[in-house]
């Protein structure tokens, strides 16, 4: 990994083409799994007839899954670096609350995806993500490096909105 200097003299890592290809492939798989997740959530909601219980079960299963991955990684990894007290004290107080935003997204998925269809749901979720992400990048907030908005990024957001409209309409 090498670093490049941006006009604002910020240092950001650059990745090799093969690393970027792998990362993009993993992101595509992750995105595909979100559609499968919507189907699982909808099926669970229909079976349980309760959106709240569906959300609790979904998060419980996710917690068990993440725990199992943690245990497996600890068993095969020689690197066992845990945060020190100073690391935890220096962490912003809002940092652990990302799970709540994930919970809100899952609740939205459980309650509305079946009404609008998984394609439209995902298209609008992605549109919302892109607008907030563009603003976060532009201002460099929540620990992300600053990446100023430009005409290409605005055009990309506009194309996502057009795609969302087309998914909803057809």
Describe this structure in words.
By secondary structure, the chain is mainly alpha-helical. The protein has six helices and two strands; from the N terminus they run ββαααααα. It has helices at 17-48, 51-76, 85-90, 98-116, 118-139, 151-169, and strands at residues 2-5, 11-14. Strands 1-2 form a two-stranded antiparallel sheet. β1 (2-5) and β2 form a beta hairpin. α1 (17-48) crosses α4 and α4 (98-116) packs antiparallel against α5.
Count of helical segments? 6
* Rg from alpha-carbon coordinates: 19 Å
Q: Considering DSSP H and I runs of 4 or more, what fraction of the residues is helical? A: over 70%
Strand order of the largest sheet: 1-2
N/C terminus separation: 44 Å
Protein name: DMT family transporter
Keywords: Membrane, Transmembrane, Transmembrane helix
Transmembrane segments: 57-76, 97-117, 123-144, 151-168
Organism: Nocardia amamiensis
Relevant terms:
5% strand; 170 residues; 73% helix; single chain; globular
Please write out the topology:
Elements: E1 2-5, E2 11-14, H1 17-48, H2 51-76, H3 85-90, H4 98-116, H5 118-139, H6 151-169
Antiparallel strand pairs: 1-2
Helix pairs in contact: 1-2, 1-4, 2-4, 4-5, 5-6
Quick structural gist:
The protein is built from 6 helices and 2 strands; from the N terminus they run ββαααααα. The protein is mainly alpha-helical and 170 residues long.
